[in-house]
Amino acid sequence: MAGNFGRLHCYSAVDLAPRLCYGGRHTKCRRQVTSFRRDKEPWSGGPADDSRLAVAIRQHLEEADVIVGWNSILHDIPLINARLAAAGERPVRLGEKHGRPHLDLMYYAGGLSMKIGSRALDRVSIFFDSPHRKTPLTPKVWAKAGEGDADAWDSIVEHCELDALVTRDMFPHLAPYVKKFGFTLSEVWPFVSQIPSRTHA
To answer: Cα Rg for the chain, rounded, in angstroms?
Structure first.
């Protein structure tokens, strides 16, 4: 989906801190997820107006200390920025220069890190036997949501929320492959003596 014809439907995010969760589609897991959806207030701006949702997403992202996503560098953030631009709004301020690191886990499911055979989140989650699984969505569901079908909207939101949970499931498996992750010296100085490469026998 591109920003010229596509519209933002929903946004879901979950804290990285592990919490008791039964896996699957259990409602206790989904209650841990923060979701915004364009078919509900205060994010609804009309059938084709996603400006309120785009601004709400930007605000929520900029409140985080660290952003962790899946294909978020090349897809999610550029799409959000395109929809913000369409609304006459500024882009999301992420990255080291804004003090808000952005980590895309997709790059650590391949390349020099490991050779699973696919970087697709659903395939990687199967490889690591994630307690959650992505839900499939057909074009018919997207079309029905565009017509205002409530069940279709619920299916899309469930898909978004499971995406967030599966990404969190992948974090402990892929984080050890992150070789460089920028922090200011003032942030890490109290812990320098605990870094293995800086300790001496």
So the answer is: 18
